[in-house]
């Protein structure tokens, strides 16, 4: 009887573990279609991730308003290699066009550096603008909607900056205590990041020439992190208290396809402003609303 009881308990535990494991996987077991008016997403390190199916592979893409390129990471490239002609050799920063019923036709820049990436690519502002004039992130419902909807919040202007014909990056003007600061609107940033010279210099107005020159100059690389607490943070009628931010002293060399290359000169606003909020960006009117 004891042996039978042990066998029964072993089988019960195995079924229980399988059931629990399956349910946790199924929570994210969805695939979006490019033509859908609504995408489901999940958060990974507080970054919105959407799933698409290309042929027999499921690819995870981060939705990143802080990138003016669509990017395939090393992980994503490895998944789609079987479908690339043998005579096509991919090089860093090559442009690759992917077409599928689910994803549509999208141009990606190939990026091999990020070998430890937990996602397969980045869908930046080119993808969002191609998809809809109005994009709404519902962080509580974990949905991205591509239809206009009412958001209870104050509409604020955005500063669009296109660098040499590429898709724009968008900057917010945020009141921090008694000063104004220009922040990159960045759904791909899991934190609030302050430029390295925040303490002793006024914020530089984002312009095409300044950003272009910044990206094409050589700098020595340095790493410095400093966490600070901002007592009061205002945006769009919202008041944020005791916001934690990190000084970024990343100084990279050469140009980059990512907006985060110039975080040493520009601050970046990410997830702490969007948590449990509805965030609507209007690309036609260049406005942003953060509300309930």
List the helices and strands and how they pair.
Layout: H1 2-26, E1 38-40, E2 42-44, E3 47-54, E4 57-63, E5 71-72, H2 74-80, E6 95-100, E7 104-110, E8 121-123, H3 125-131, E9 134-138, E10 143-145, E11 155-157, E12 159-161, E13 169-176, E14 179-185, E15 192-195, H4 208-215, E16 225-235, E17 238-248, E18 267-269, H5 271-274, E19 278-282, E20 287-291
Parallel strand pairs: 4-8, 5-7, 14-18, 15-17
Antiparallel strand pairs: 1-10, 2-3, 3-4, 5-8, 6-7, 9-10, 9-19, 11-20, 12-13, 13-14, 13-16, 16-17, 19-20
Descriptors:
alpha+beta, seven-stranded mixed beta sheet, 37% strand, Cathepsin D, subunit A, domain 1, 292 residues
Outline the structure in words.
The protein contains five helices and 20 strands. It is of the alpha+beta class and 292 residues long. The protein has two domains: 38-145, Beta Barrel (Cathepsin D, subunit A, domain 1), CATH 2.40.70; 155-291, Beta Barrel (Cathepsin D, subunit A, domain 1). The strands form three sheets. A seven-stranded mixed β-sheet has the order 2-3-4-8-5-7-6. The longest helix has 25 residues, at 2-26. The protein is globular and about 60 Å long. Mean pLDDT is 76; it is low at 1-27 and 250-260.
């Amino acid at each position: 009887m004891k042996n039978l009881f042990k066998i029964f308990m072993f089988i019960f535990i195995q079924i229980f573990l399988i059931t629990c494991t399956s349910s946790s996987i199924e929570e994210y077991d969805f695939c979006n279609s490019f033509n859908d008016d609504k995408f489901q997403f999940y958060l990974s390190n507080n970054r919105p991730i959407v799933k698409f199916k290309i042929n027999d592979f499921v690819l995870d893409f981060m939705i990143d308003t802080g990138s003016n390129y669509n990017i395939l990471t090393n992980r994503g490239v490895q998944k789609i290699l079987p479908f690339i002609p043998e005579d096509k050799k991919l090089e860093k920063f090559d442009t690759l066009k992917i077409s599928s019923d689910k994803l549509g036709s999208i141009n990606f820049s190939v990026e091999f550096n990020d070998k430890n990436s937990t996602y397969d690519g980045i869908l930046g502002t080119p993808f969002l603008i191609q998809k809809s004039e109005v994009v709404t992130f519902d962080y509580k419902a974990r949905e991205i909607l591509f239809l206009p909807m009412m958001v209870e919040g104050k509409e604020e202007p955005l500063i669009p900056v296109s660098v040499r014909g590429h898709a724009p990056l968008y900057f917010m003007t945020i009141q921090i205590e008694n000063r104004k600061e220009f922040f990159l609107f960045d759904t791909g940033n899991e934190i609030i990041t302050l430029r390295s010279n925040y303490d002793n210099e006024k914020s530089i107005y984002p312009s095409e020439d300044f950003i272009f020159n910044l990206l094409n100059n050589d700098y020595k690389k340095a790493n410095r992190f400093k966490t600070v607490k901002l007592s009061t943070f205002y945006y769009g009628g919202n008041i944020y208290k005791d916001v934690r931010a990190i000084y970024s002293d990343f100084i990279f060399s050469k140009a980059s396809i990512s907006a985060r290359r110039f975080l040493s000169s520009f601050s970046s606003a990410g997830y702490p402003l969007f948590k449990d909020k509805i965030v609507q960006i209007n690309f036609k009117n260049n406005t942003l609303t953060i509300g309930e």
